[in-house]
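REQUEST FORM: STRUCTURE PREDICTION
Request ID: SP-0412
Submitted by: Lab K.M.
Chain count: 1
Length (residues): 365
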Amino acid sequence: MNNKEKNKLNILSFVTHLLLACAILLCFIFPCIKSAAAGNENEKPEFNPDESVDIVIDLQDETRFMTLTLYRIGDYDGERFSYTDEILRFMDKDYYKLSRETEKQSAAEVLSGLIPKETEPESFHVWVSGGKGEAEGLSSGLYLVVQNKKDQNAVLEKPFIVEAPGLSEDKTEYLYDVRVFPKWDREIWFTFRKEVVHPILLAAVLALLVVLCLVGAKSLRVVLVGSSFVLSGLLGMTLVSLIDGFEYNFLWFFVVFLIFAFLGVGIMWGIITILSVPVKKIHADSFLSKNLFWITALAGAAGMFYVLSRFLLESMAVCAVISVSAFILGCILQKLQKKKEVHFYTYEDLIRMSPKEEDILDEIK
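STATUS: Completed
RESULT:
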């Protein structure tokens, strides 16, 4: 073998050893790089143990209400959630060892059967009203959510555990405002609270306004009495809800509603009686009787527009079209009814009658 061939073999051997060394080096370096990258991706933000947590229960239905209790069953140390010592003695494994959602759900059901029979940890009551309830100022940790057997028209499918605080989707920050959307079923139940009463009273007011718009003078007394009854009762419910201790006492809601409702009817009749005297003195009653058909239609249509736009429909244009249509139809119907009316005059009416009106009356006779 000559020197040329030896040099080729040496170069080939050197390249082979170099490639082998690079391959070995990469085998060691690549896992380290991958581990470091994964560490950066999974790195949690800084945890503040002194910051309080708010847990919001949202049923996503404004007509639903229920009462819940949140039991604090675990702690959080910035790395993992774990049961308190009081709870751990009833469980076969700690919370952070539960890897699947089914295991966590089973743990929630087991704990709901033990609390408060075997143990009663720190608890917080949450009133879900209008589909939402909130517990504020809680410390970080695990909370078991259980429904109470009190006033309700919705039932949780299962008790569940809430981890507070939570992590954002990209895991870059802690969420101290934890929002939960539990699964629930409807329950038919009547109680005198605003979620139930308000829709019924709203329908009653809307019906009264439709009657006022289409029938007018014939329904005026019924509409005035009915509207004063409903609105005064609602005012009483609103006032009593502002008093501490009465917000969820639904028997008091009913009592106060009736007191204010009948009081409102009495005040309405008093106002009508007082106003009727000056109206007769200035002879405005004849003007009102002649023009009442469009005044009542306008008042009913205006009230319909407010109720529809404020509580039922989002489109102002649709509300306006419905109200204007009701006004026109009411004017037509009441005008036709007015032509068919037979007027009866009292002796006082005849005395106050002007000469022109007397001539018209003679022509009618």
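NOTES: The CA atoms of residues 74 and 83 lie 4 Å apart.
Reviewed by: T.R.
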